[in-house]
Amino acid sequence: MADKKGLSYKARRRWALVVLLIGLPLYIMVATVLGGLLVDYPVVLQLLVFVVLGIIWILPFKSLFRGIGQADPDAPKDE
């Protein structure tokens, strides 16, 4: 039976970099366009929309970014 561990540490690091360098700027552009549509609404509503949009982008990628800043657990240990 195949191991269901998921992506390796190196693959997660690469995908995290792709998300940050390509996906996040695209998401920022979409959020800015949506914010531009709210020009006639109160500032508090605009702020609320930007805060919600600023939080929800990370939810699908939460497991991808978990542990990325730590040492590679798959690397051989130096003795």
From TrEMBL:
Keywords of the record, alphabetical order, are:
Membrane, Transmembrane, Transmembrane helix
The superkingdom of the source organism is: Bacteria
Organism for this UniProt entry: Parasedimentitalea denitrificans
Q: What is this protein called?
A: DUF2842 domain-containing protein
Report the transmembrane regions from the record.
15-37, 43-61
Q: Which Pfam family, any one of them, does this sequence belong to?
A: DUF2842
User: Which InterPro entries does this chain map to?
Assistant: DUF2842 (IPR021265)
